[in-house]
């Protein structure tokens, strides 16, 4: 398969045939230290088996995923078969900008929003419809109850992406009403109602920023915390949707969190920014940011506040997984051990105020599964999977994450029946999680494998992994 088989892109068109699989495999192996298929897959949110099939030219990555792979492996537009600059045709530099492909000399900084996106009419209509719905939600401070049917959900982050470069205008509102709206949005995230969340966030962010800008003193700091956590939710959503705008939302979250003066929002924002870094191939930088932020909390010794200890635990877990993605086994396992020790110091009871994740022994075990998947040692994750009772995980989003990681684990271990059982667990807990791009890719890989599993094809069609 040549790169000519890729779906048309609105600006960038390949003009030279390229063996995409060979190119990706050779550049991955040329990394120092060498990057495994599992590590590349973990960086972009796909399985090692999916990367393997791309390198065998059995699968063609979508353009946005190909762009991300190219950035991680420092593949230039010319190497992708794009033409040099000529009259009427974008050159490599222009093509790279059009496709958000950051060349070494023009990497996009974390605080730079993409300036070259154009408003799509369909996305704009969806954005306005979603914003209108959230306006009613904010006015009544009621939680949106209905989640979209997984068979019709498409891109839950579409309205949010539009709002990032064409923001809504909003009036300030009382802080108590704003807090209720944020609680409703958080509930949608925790219960994996991503379509509803994507519709709510643009107006919530606009109202929170307008409220913050109208206040001063401690009330402004309180509003800044709401702004930061709204952007943390936005970052979580864009990561799940494989959107590069996670860079933008995470940076805005961190700026607002610093203005709040509260350590918990700062830690939460640093965590989502590090995830965006890792997914763009900057795993080592992500580890540095996470460990530095964990140190600034001052929770290593003494009797820290439970919230500081919980944030430190979550930062160490994300740092451990990020180190695993880079292939640094020693650092990954050491950081995971530190996170275990930190979680053991937490008092029994609620989640100590963490906003989107929790800090517990079960959470640490859950991360261990993903760490070993990323390191290419999924067999070492089995005992951690066996130790977890998914019913005791606190949210639908975390339960779906457990089944996602175990599905990847069993897929790497070439156990299709256990993989399919885990995929069904995702759908049972959180139907919209089963429609995420990474989970659909894993499902499609299973469909086109050699095992015949009753009901798999229907599941794949239902979740959008394959066409009917």
From TrEMBL:
InterPro entries: Cro/C1-type_HTH (IPR001387), Lambda_DNA-bd_dom_sf (IPR010982). GO terms for molecular function: DNA binding. It comes from the Bacteria. It holds the Pfam family HTH_31. Coiled coil: none annotated. Residues 24-80 form the HTH cro/C1-type domain. This is Transcriptional regulator.
